Amino acid sequence: MLDELKRSVLDANLALKRSGLVLYTWGNVSGIDRESGLIVIKPSGVDYDALTVDSMVVVDRGGNVVEGSYRPSSDTPTHLVLYEAFPEIGGVAHTHSTYATMWAQAGCAIPCFGTTHADHFYGDIPCTRHLTAEEVSGAYEYETGRVIMEAMAQLDENAVPAVLVRGHGPFTWGDSPMSAVVNSVVLEEVAKIAHGTATLNPAAAPIPGYLLDRHFFRKHGKGAYYGQR
């Protein structure tokens, strides 16, 4: 079942490990088959070096296991909320990468200080509020998805395919599992650059809107001219 998607999700999880963004069993990537509504995700607590195509777990939109001998990632409910809210995405990734997690623990959005950031993300990377005690004691991972939706309410998920969960870490998404991983890698790099910028100059301000527009839209949208046709 969904052999091609399983392979894509496995490859994306292994790429996440190779990128250096995850340690041990931290982090996960999933992918969705929009036709069937089924999701393939990394199994919970299984070392990346032990992952195979057959390790991948298939769940339905309610999080019920449809195929697989392992339990799915504990973050599965968060992924499900994102797939429900963002009908165009095809993959979700979650890490505890160092610099992005620093910003999440500080409770700060990542400002768009320069064109490296603007080339990929259209403005600041938002940070959620803290979950309440009631949310944490209840359906914690589902509620994590809900606070992400709150933080993204006024944003275009295709222009800002990343969020920081306060006190936790980053989630990213894309049109495929691998593109979600690419967004995680880029997010970590811009988080690192922003950390250095704020350290060198605590009064640093985001770039002007006209420069943000020029850099983002030269690579994204109908008028994009970066790269080859």
Order of helices and strands: HEEEEHEHHHHEEHH
Radius of gyration, whole Å: 17 Å
Number of helices: 8
- In CATH terms, the superfamily is Class II aldolase/adducin N-terminal domain
Name given to the CATH architecture: 3-Layer(aba) Sandwich
According to DSSP, the number of beta strands is 7
Which percent range describes the beta-strand content?
Answer: 5-15%
Question: Which structural class do the helices and strands define?
Answer: alpha+beta
Q: Count up the domains.
A: 1
Tell me the name of the CATH class: Alpha Beta
Layout of secondary structure:
Blueprint: H1 3-18, E1 28-33, E2 38-41, E3 57-59, E4 65-67, H2 76-85, E5 91-94, H3 98-106, H4 115-118, H5 133-137, H6 140-151, E6 162-165, E7 169-174, H7 177-200, H8 209-217
Antiparallel strand pairs: 1-2, 1-5, 2-3, 3-4, 5-7, 6-7
Helix pairs in contact: 1-7, 2-6, 3-7
